[in-house]
Amino acid sequence: AQSVTQLDSHVSVSEGTPVLLRCNYSSSYSPSLFWYVQHPNKGLQLLLKYTSAATLVKGINGFEAEFKKSETSFHLTKPSAHMSDAAEYFCVIFLDTGRRALTFGSGTRLQVQP
Amino acid sequence: DVKVTQSSRYLVKRTGEKVFLECVQDMDHENMFWYRQDPGLGLRLIYFSYDVKMKEKGDIPEGYSVSREKKERFSLILESASTNQTSMYLCASSLAETQYFGPGTRLLVL
Questions:
Q1: How much is the CA Rg of chain B, to the nearest whole Å?
Q2: Cβ–Cβ of A46/B56 closer than 8 Å?
């Protein structure tokens, strides 16, 4: 079975410091992986996606993620946190097994302290 | 830009009521999905549809049904609402692997 595990339910950083949100995946195939962000009372927005091209993927708002097959990881990073980054982040794997559906991790809530 | 709209942002219903949640997308996407979101559980797939009049069960279909009479519209139906169906409901559409989400409907069942 294919799945993703987000290793931290909450992460707190200070404004201007780096952000690291961790995600490990499990897949029998070469996966498609995504990070989505959800701001309070807003819908889900696509941050970035990996679909077997470059292993370092750049997304919106200065975020990037690196696909590491040897570690089965897809961690999300940003060099310098901004207050507006406070939100919930979901690591997601795409199951192209006929269902074409996404499987979500449980989410990581990012707090940014002034 | 893809636009996915949901008929209500907030709903309050009573146990046993029949509840309709509507979703409309404007990008001619073939695939549409209904998820529910609960704290600590992420999003879980209820039902999905690849084409008009087609529907497939997701991971948690019990207590729900769906209808897709037109390509742009996908409805989620709670036949007899129960308190454990209090949740945030999210609709999405896609052409390929990237899904685009609506703003969500927060449903409270009393």
A1: 13
A2: no
Residues of chain A with C-beta less than 8 angstroms from the C-beta of B50: 100
Distance CA A1, CA A104 (A): 13
The C-alpha of A82 sits at a distance from chain B's nearest C-alpha, in angstroms, of 23
- Dmax (CA) for chain B in angstroms is 38
For A53-80, what is each residue's pLDDT tens digit?
788 999 999 999 999 999 999 999 999 9
Amino acid at A13: V
**B40 shares contact with chain A (CB less than 8 Å):** yes
- pLDDT-derived band at B2 (thresholds 50, 70, 90) equals low
C-alpha–C-alpha distance, residues B10 and B19, integer Å: 12
> Containing domain of residue A75, as a range?
3-99+107-113
Sort out which chain A residues have CB atoms less than 8 A from B2's CB and list them: none
Side-chain-side CA neighbours of A102 within 13 Å: the count stands at 33
Distance from the Cα of B32 to chain A's closest Cα (Å) equals 10
pLDDT tens-place string over residues A74-101 = 999 999 999 999 999 999 998 766 666 7
CA distance B101 to chain A (A): 6
| Bridge partners of residue B37, in order along the sequence | B43, B88
| Domains along chain B with CATH numbers | 4-109 (2.60.40.10)
